[in-house]
Every structure is written in structure tokens, then in C-alpha cells.
Specification:
With about 130 residues, this protein is mainly α. The chain has helices at about 1-30, 40-70, 70-95, 100-130. The chain has one domain (about 1-130): Up-down Bundle (Four Helix Bundle (Hemerythrin (Met), subunit A)), CATH 1.20.120.550.
Length: about 130
Amino acid sequence: MPYVHLVIALALVEFLAFGFGVGSARKRCQVGAPATTGNAEFERYFRAQANTLEQLVVFLPSIWLFAHYLNAYVAAALGALFIIGRAVYFLGYVKAAEGRHVGFMLGAIPTVILLVGALYGVLHALIANG
């Protein structure tokens, strides 16, 4: 599971980097805390980071369960695709809101696969162990 752990750590580092991007945009766009509106550029940074947090809530337990019950190497590969997708999403979104779609799908599809696989693995283990 070291590859899965590495992917999880990288996903968290990526999220922190997005947070630093939000902080930098807040300063550059002169949006004082605690405001989250008032400048379209800042709002795109903020939403890109917030959406990544929303995705992490599903991604993190899904990758862990998929790796435990099915296959750690496949989980790590799907997780790497999630990280790439989130980067594409973030970069596309901060340029223009319309630029987020490809990256969103690159991150969402692996998450759905991980979640469905995790559910399958858990149910299979429950049935097998009676």
C-alpha cells in the first residue's frame, strides 16, 4: 500500500498548494478576509479549491477502501489520475470557469470507479464472511 499512501499524501499536498493559490489570489485581487466574493478571478480560485475539498471527501475513503479490498496498484493508478485531473481542473478554472470541465471529468471518473469498487469490495467481504 505504499503507492496508495504516496498518492494520498500527494493529493493532500496538491490541496494545500491550491490553498496557497487562493491566499495569493486573495492578496492580488484585494479581497479581504473573510469575504469570498467581489472579484471574479478570486472567486474562481476559491471555488476551484473548495470543489477540490468537496471531491477529497469522497476520494480519500474510496481509494483507501478500494486498495484494501481490491487492488492497491489499481487504486494508486486511479488516484494518480485523480491528482492530474484536479490539477487540470484547477488551472482551467482559474483561467475561465468554462475551462474546468475536462479536469473535472479526469478527477471525477477515477473517484466514481474507486467508490464503486470500494462498495463492491466491502459487500463481497461481508457476503464471503457471512
